[in-house]
Amino acid sequence: MSSNDCRRRRVIRYGTMAAAVLCLSAGTAAADVVTKWNHNVVAFTIAAGRPNAESNAVAAYMHIAMYDAVSSIDGDYTPFATHVVNAPAGASREAAALEAAYQIVAAIYPAASFSALAAQFLAAYTADMGAIPDGTAKTDGKAVGQAAAAGLLAKRQNDGFRANVPYTFLPLGPGVYQKLRAPAVRRRRMRVPSPRG
Questions:
Q1: Domain ranges of the chain
Q2: Cβ(96)–Cβ(30) under 8 Å?
Q3: Which of 20, 29, 103, 185 could form a disulfide with 149 if both were Cys (CB 3.0 to 4.6 A apart)?
Q4: Quick one: CA dihedral 61, 146, 150, 106, positive or negative?
């Protein structure tokens, strides 16, 4: 094989890979909502001083609801927790994902208990939903997102999400957890990167 043939194959291979990456990265509006709301949950909960384990669980619930909303519209994938039956095919995937995300965080961080955090999420939701053109697709998408979030919240009801479970340390011995004193560490403030786009 000549060097020109090798070069041509390499160009074709790299061109194909670049085209695939561009097609995959073109993404959909719903994917942008997922990325932005992942950032919102991380940034808002860290700034509010919420525990990492709680923030991670909230993000997981939110992502499940968003996935279920979008997959119910697409019909190509099996929903994780809630299949929204009769989801209109023309429903806005972006509105569905956004509504599902907001309904989860609004349920977990109600304004009565978490006023500042709830206000941040509401402001982000209002701005993002306002950017989606009004119409049937938006209305249908919001309904699907609401149903996906409600289904997940119903399944997770009384799951002990914020339960305070005490732990009793057993006497020392082989195979028994031993509490260690943490070394003195200077705490640094975590920097949350801004979302792309």
A1: 28-156
A2: yes
A3: 103
A4: positive
Angle between helices 136-156 and 52-74 (to 10 degrees): 130
Alpha carbon of residue 148 to chain centroid = 13
Q: How confident is the model at residue 26 (pLDDT cuts 50, 70, 90)?
A: very low
CB-based contact 195:35 (threshold 8 Å): yes
24, pLDDT greater than 50:
no
CATH code, residues 28-156: 1.20.144.10
- What is the pLDDT averaged over residues 25-36? 67
Query: What is the distance between the alpha carbons of residues 195 and 197, in angstroms, rounded to a whole number?
Result: 6
Dihedral (CA of 35, 144, 146, 63) sign: negative
DSSP state of 109: S
Taking CA atoms, 158 is separated from 89, 127, 138, 161, in Å, by: 33, 32, 32, 8
> Are residues 138 and 92 in contact, defined by beta-carbon separation less than 8 angstroms?
yes
